[in-house]
């Protein structure tokens, strides 16, 4: 299948000379899975084509944003029109107000929202806001959750409770993360103990409600309920990082999924990104008015951005949200994702490959493990060599999954039943190769 002249390889060689590791975001380098990254030439609907003009069914969709698929006509039209009207003004526009109104209508736990350019910026500022609003310093985060690469959040789990994190990255001084307490996801005992020990000093608890950065791991309803109760009891702010899950697992985001089980459930601060920008650099964070009024220019928590609320990005986000809120959109997307998930599970079962898989809305994740994991340690029990075999087997058959076993997958409205059948058939082929002989 591989062409005699691999243009991806040639591009990677060129890229390595001028860009560290050849990529502008590390996972793209295929370091975990080996082999050569595919350089994307163009994309349409559920597909992209690489430098060799090889077509792939795309289950990453820019790591989540492309919920409508690539090149959706309404999105193209809105973006082209916005571009002719001006790229960036550094002054307010009506479209920012419209997008803010649209986001708030979908996620009503927020009464005000501020638009920024990346999830990292949104997460970083949410933490600053929680600290500014409470006058406290400590933050709880969970092992395996990623909230962008702001210094204070780049913390690996310490082992066990009350171990304050060690920086995961060089260049982050230990003092910068000394207020970040890292706990095990879904571990109620650790959560209780952390609040018992540090309750009065905790500004906020940040969590991916359905974690998409250790593949796909749900917070249990009970864990979610206790996070909410303990934050309320101790005056800490519950921060939902919905950069990945926002308008992706449900129109109302993951918080609406949990609200079905916990009446009245709401986080205090919500961090959004990806889908709300439809593939353009756009993210947001929001909360109740009383919290958001701590932000400059009203309050003393500073945050700003030259390209914040960019007019082309807001046009893209706005039309994306208007498409996904059309009646039946999420039902269709969820059914499609469910049929992929059921098909993959049946294919693995048929070949006797231990496999577990879960999904919500248009997001899914699978493990080469007999049971779904509930925390990072369990996720890491996955056999990476076997994952790599599955990844490359599918890649060779024109199916593009995330190139690492700790990443989630995404289905778009553009994926057809035929795409899903092709994917399942390809997976069955690979499972057959992987099956115990
Ligand atoms: N939070 C979550 C849950 C994410 O998945 C990501 C990115 N994958 C971020 C924050 C950071 O967003 P960005 O890459 O736009 O900075």
Question: How would you sum up this structure, described in words?
Answer:
- With 437 residues, the protein is α/β, with parallel strands linked by helices.
- It folds into 2 domains: 7-71 and 327-434, Aspartate Aminotransferase, domain 1; 73-324, Aspartate Aminotransferase, domain 2 (3-Layer(aba) Sandwich).
- It is 37% helix and 16% strand.
- It has helices at 7-18, 73-85, 94-106, 119-134, 188-198, 221-234, 253-259, 289-292, 311-324, 329-350, 376-379, 384-396, 417-434; strands spanning 40-44, 47-50, 55-58, 112-116, 138-142, 155-156, 166-167, 180-183, 202-207, 210-211, 217-218, 237-242, 269-272, 283-287, 356-360, 363-367, 399-400, 409-410.
- It has a 7-stranded mixed β-sheet with strand order 4-14-13-12-9-5-8, with helices on both faces.
- Helix 2 (73-85) packs antiparallel against helix 9 and helix 5 runs parallel beside helix 6.
- The radius of gyration is 21 Å and the shape is globular.
- Residues 157-163 have low confidence and may be disordered.
- It binds 4'-deoxy-4'-aminopyridoxal-5'-phosphate.
- 4'-deoxy-4'-aminopyridoxal-5'-phosphate binds next to helix 4.
